[in-house]
């Protein structure tokens, strides 16, 4: 539980603080497929930047705490698939969305042995799903060193001693749980298992003759017997406190409470109050070269190589269109004073973005690589080519640098998805700027290239579904809406504001970066007029905001 996994990305769970085993590319196979182990595994495949995973984390934590005493039978693990270090193992596991929960039976020997569970937002639901999987496994492979989950077989010939057959010799007590078929008995047996040297456990069906003998009328119900004594020493309905009560009756002080849920005390941060200090707040908003390069490395490398090995058909076209857009319009210049068409035409105060210039060469090479591939490339070929080209250009993607504008006030906020949005907006603005004199540009093309990448490669499944629904049904990305070249900027602006509106108040919202309708008043007072946005002012603001890019070396020389 204390192992700190390799990789660069932040983790959603704290090593050592929770009963969750951290796995990574280096440990996954040896741990999960170890043929000598006695336990099964349940593993969450997550992405640290994924909103669904962040919202799911408290439930997984609660679940891990609930089953923390089941360690001899099953263990809880997690692996961060957003970390490039783990890309291969996540791909081998067929992780197509996040969070993905898989149960690996005790004798699993390969990735295909994992069984998918529902990532329910409830610790007890996850516990019940796990108990079910354990029971299914036991019904096929009744391991003698697991709890005896078989129902007691009681008939007229059964003697009292027969009930004790599988109870450890030194255990002087036996507890029987009576239940309707596959009720709470499995969980009870797993909870009782750590005390097997004191007390044995068995399950019995509500139809067994013992039920009549003991005059039990409600289920689930437990009865405890002492060795040699046919009279039950304790009887009562099964509740969450029953095991504790049983253990305390036998040997007071022996009951060990499951690992408590860690309430991590967060360092206090001083949030900037944007109403009181609008200028300070405005200073937190800028377009960062670092953020875009980090995001594009994940988008083209980590996300693409996690997909199925064969990239063909529509996925190939979508990859080709997106990498072409990057090769043509990813910004390699920053403009300090842009904002109106006239200023753009002068472009007098531009500066080269050195890393982006080299990154653009990587994009161009990757496009050429696809040109030679006639409609199909494998993820491994793509990975090898990408890694070799980025080496040739001196690793222009600062993957280990910290997020700049996209840094959250806590590690679980912002990051990659903020970097994606920033790049998407920047691409529309720079396509507009690059083609300002060429009226022949189809303004839908860059938007469709972005939509295609999201559809084929964005690992956040629910984001993808929402985005596709929005851009095809709610607010269609169509010729009617995107007629003029500046429409591509304004379409994405409005689409993003629809997402902001939906996510406002969501648990994933960074308290410092509230999901405003963008740009908020403190960033652009002139954009707001009579409770509405002035589209012309917004357009000029977006041109300024996304043309004026803070260079990587600027952020890292502070
Ligand atoms: C395609 C896509 C779909 C997503 N869908 C979901 C989803 O369904 N559910 C979910 O939980 N998360 C979703 N996300 C993630 C979510 O939108 C945010 O990225 C995440 O919550 C982090 O928010 P943030 O505060 O960093 O700001 P972000 O919303 O990521 O914005 C990044 C930056 O873009 C600028 N910006 C903000 N709004 C606009 C605008 N209207 N026009 C121009 N610039 C703007 C600001 O500088 C802002 O800081 C999606 C992300 C993407 C890329």
Structure description:
With 558 residues, the protein is an alpha/beta fold. The two termini are 37 Å apart. Helix content is 41%, strand content 13%. The protein is built from 19 helices and 17 strands. The longest helix is centred in the last third of the chain and has 19 residues. The chain has three domains: 120 residues, Glutaredoxin (3-Layer(aba) Sandwich); 91 residues, Glutaredoxin (3-Layer(aba) Sandwich); 278 residues, Four Helix Bundle (Hemerythrin (Met), subunit A) (Up-down Bundle), CATH 1.20.120. The strands form six sheets. It has a five-stranded mixed beta sheet with strand order 1-3-2-4-5, with helices on one face. The mean pLDDT is 92. Bound molecules: flavin-adenine dinucleotide. The site of flavin-adenine dinucleotide has 26 residues, from helix 14, helix 16 and helix 17. Its EC number is 1.8.3.2. One of its GO terms (cellular component) is Golgi membrane.
Keywords for this structure?
558 residues, four-stranded mixed beta sheet, Glutaredoxin, Four Helix Bundle (Hemerythrin (Met), subunit A), five-stranded mixed beta sheet, binds flavin-adenine dinucleotide, alpha/beta
Number of helices: 19
How far apart the termini lie comes to 37 Å
Query: Sheet with the most strands?
Result: 5 strands, mixed
Query: Beta-strand percentage?
Result: 5-15%
Q: What would CATH call the class of the largest domain? A: Mainly Alpha
Rounded mean pLDDT is 92
Secondary structure category: alpha/beta
Give the tally of β-strands: 17
Q: How are strands sequenced across the largest beta sheet?
A: 1-3-2-4-5
């Amino acid at each position: 539980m204390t192992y700190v996994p390799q990789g660069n990305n932040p983790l959603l769970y704290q090593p050592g603080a929770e009963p969750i085993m951290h796995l990574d590319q280096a440990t996954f196979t040896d741990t999960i497929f170890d043929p000598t182990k006695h336990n099964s595994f349940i593993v969450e495949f997550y992405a640290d930047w994924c909103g669904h995973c962040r919202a799911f984390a408290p439930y997984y934590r609660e679940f891990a705490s609930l089953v923390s005493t089941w360690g001899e039978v099953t263990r809880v693990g997690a692996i961060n698939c957003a970390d490039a270090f783990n890309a291969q193992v996540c791909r081998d596991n067929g992780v197509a969305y996040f969070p993905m929960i898989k149960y690996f039976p005790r004798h699993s020997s390969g990735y295909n042995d994992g069984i998918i569970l529902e990532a329910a937002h409830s610790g007890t639901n996850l516990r019940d799903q796990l108990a079910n999987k354990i029971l299914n496994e036991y019904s096929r492979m009744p391991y003698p060193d697991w709890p005896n989950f078989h129902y007691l077989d009681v008939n007229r010939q059964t003697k009292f001693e027969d009930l004790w057959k599988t109870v450890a010799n030194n255990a002087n007590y036996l507890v029987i749980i009576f239940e309707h078929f596959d009720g709470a008995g499995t969980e009870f047996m797993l909870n009782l298992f750590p005390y097997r040297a004191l007390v044995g456990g068995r399950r019995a069906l509500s139809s067994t003759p013992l039920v009549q003998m003991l005059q039990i009328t409600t289920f689930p119900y437990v009865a405890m017997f002492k060795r040699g004594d046919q009279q039950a020493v304790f009887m009562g309905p099964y509740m969450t406190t029953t095991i504790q009560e049983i253990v305390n009756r036998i040997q007071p002080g022996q009951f060990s409470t499951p690992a408590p849920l860690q309430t991590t005390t967060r360092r206090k941060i001083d949030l900037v109050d944007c109403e009181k200090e609008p200028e300070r707040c405005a200073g937190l908003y800028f377009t960062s070269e670092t953020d875009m390069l980090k995001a594009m490395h994940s988008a083209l490398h980590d996300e693409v190589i996690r997909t199925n090995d064969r990239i063909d058909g529509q996925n190939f076209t979508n990859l080709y269109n997106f990498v072409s857009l990057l090769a043509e319009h990813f910004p390699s210049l920053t403009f300090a004073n842009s904002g109106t068409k006239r200023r753009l035409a002068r472009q007098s105060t531009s500066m080269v973005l050195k890393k982006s210039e080299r990154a653009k060469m990587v994009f161009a090479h990757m496009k050429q690589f696809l040109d030679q591939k006639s409609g199909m490339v494998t993820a491994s070929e793509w990975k090898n080519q990408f890694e070799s080209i980025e080496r040739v250009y001196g690793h222009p993607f600062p993957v280990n640098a910290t997020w700049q504008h996209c840094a959250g006030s806590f590690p679980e906020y912002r990051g990659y998805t903020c970097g994606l949005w920033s790049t998407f907006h920047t691409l529309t603005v720079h396509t507009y700027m690059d083609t300002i004199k060429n009226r022949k540009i189809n303004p839908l093309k860059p938007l469709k290239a972005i939509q295609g990448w999201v559809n084929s490669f964005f690992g956040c499944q629910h984001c993808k579904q929402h985005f596709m629904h929005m851009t095809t049904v709610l607010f269609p990305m169509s010729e009617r809406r995107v007629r003029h070249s500046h429409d591509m900027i304004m379409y994405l602006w409005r689409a993003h504001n629809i997402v902001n509106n939906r996510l406002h108040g969501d648990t994933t919202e960074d308290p410092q970066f509230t999901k405003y309708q963008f740009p908020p008043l403190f960033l652009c007072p002139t954009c707001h007029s009579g409770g509405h946005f002035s589209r012309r002012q917004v357009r000029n603001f977006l041109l300024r905001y996304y043309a004026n890019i803070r260079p990587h070396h600027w952020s890292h020389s502070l």
